[in-house]
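Q: Can someone sanity-check these two? First one:
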Amino acid sequence: MRTTFRSLSIRNFRLYFLGQAVSAPGTWMQLVAEGWLILQLTGSGVALGLVSSLQFGPMLLGGAWGGVLADRLDKRRVLIVTQVIKATLALLLGALVITGAVSMWMVYAIALAEGLVNVVDNTSRRSFVIELAGREQVANAVSLTGALWTTARITGPAVGGLIIAGAGVGVCFLVNGASYVGVLIALALIRTSELHRSERVLRAPGQVREGVAYVWREPLLRLPLILMAVAGLLAYNFRVVLPLLATDTFNQGAGVFGLLYSAMSVGSLAGALYTASRHKVHELFTASAALVMGAMIVVTAVAPTLALVMVGLALVGATSASFSATTQATLQVRSDPRFQGRVMALYSVVFLGTTPLGSPLVGWLAENLGVRTAFALCGGLTAVAAVVALIALSRRTLPPPADDRDLVVEQAVAV
């Protein structure tokens, strides 16, 4: 237990973690409330999709520039500004709903504003973890943060549903806006003298192109990003697959969909905590987690009963959480500090950008081949990509992480 939570012994990371613990459930609460509000206003699935595009589209198009800003600016100060803006947007939407003044164009505008803020916030937040915890503890810190967000994904929607039923959808937005106070207090209390900062990058032309070129010529950065792109395009489209499994495969409704989602969320939490208990980060473990995730998706796709599908989804959740956490940690440990923000920006673009692109493809496959076949095909292709990555990595002598030659990176496959 002490090993699993070891990065919490670092004061700055502990403060940040506690701030996120206050804010993260509010974020998931708002996602539920937002969907409910859009259905109340329009009853349209197209409107739901458009809002999602407005929220994630800016990251796909401008995420690399967000990484440049993260490398140039003080990440703590950037996060203070972005949290204030996000809190203001949530409170504004809540006030519009409660006063009855809200209309759909306002929801679109606020969703676009959130997407633009996230271009800077998401990258700065991911690359800030290594400044809080240091290179030796970054893998543990990333895993614990992942476990925190998984827990919030379970509790936030449940609490949000109760609030919507008892007080109305507008109150959810107000609660989320207020929850950012926890993050702001944590950021204010962080001791800047104890941050593991790298030298800030000066403004210069061509820095986005420079960051992409740096990642491409470094195989230990390029391979995990390509593998994440494949997984994001195919394996991570659970929002498409799980409702179809519930309705088309098992002829059930929202209750079974909730059970499937909960099974995967519980597995994700277990996987994140297991990854946090590990002392070292290595690329072979990352690729192995992707391989097992793909294999478990195939097994789950052919499982004959609902109970076995739920067990399979728990294992898929565990391996997907391990893969995501170790990919982030590996990229941060392997990156030259001068490129930290740009590398994590490319991770965000790959992780958040490929899933929306893959959703229509997975939906088309499910419609034409059947849900089980489509799910199995996505898992199988992810596993094949992982095998290719493992072969490529096994032929290399993995060096110590950049600028930290005392940190030994394991070179054995362990799952």
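And here is the second, same format, sequence then tokens:
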Amino acid sequence: MNEPDGKTTTPAQEAFAARLGQRLRDSADQLDGHTRSRLNQARQAALQEIRPRRAWLGAPALAGLATAAVAIIAVSLWQPASQAPQPLVPAGIESADLELLMAEESLDMLEDLEFYTWLATAELDGGSAG
């Protein structure tokens, strides 16, 4: 007979193991009921320790919250957006002014912003250059 570690057993070893097993069963049959009960309880406790615990089964509130969160996410993804957001335009700006501001030439103006600020200040001062 082959063992899991690759070793083979002899017929004498097999006979010894069979006799030993029979003696252990016989000695267990001779135990009184109270001792058997305590051994069974210890066995059940040991088996309970090696079983994987499922914490989420012990906490139904946590499972309920997780289910609610998944439902909210699913509904929010399922609902189509009402409409695309519109760009905000400040009050008092006409569409023609907005088009001028958005033109590429206005980007050049932004590069020389200090010059235009100086020019506006100079015009307010009466045209005197500082």
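A (reply): Looked at the second one. The helical segments are 11-29, 33-50, 55-58, 60-78, 95-102, 105-111, 113-124. Residues 1-54 form one domain.
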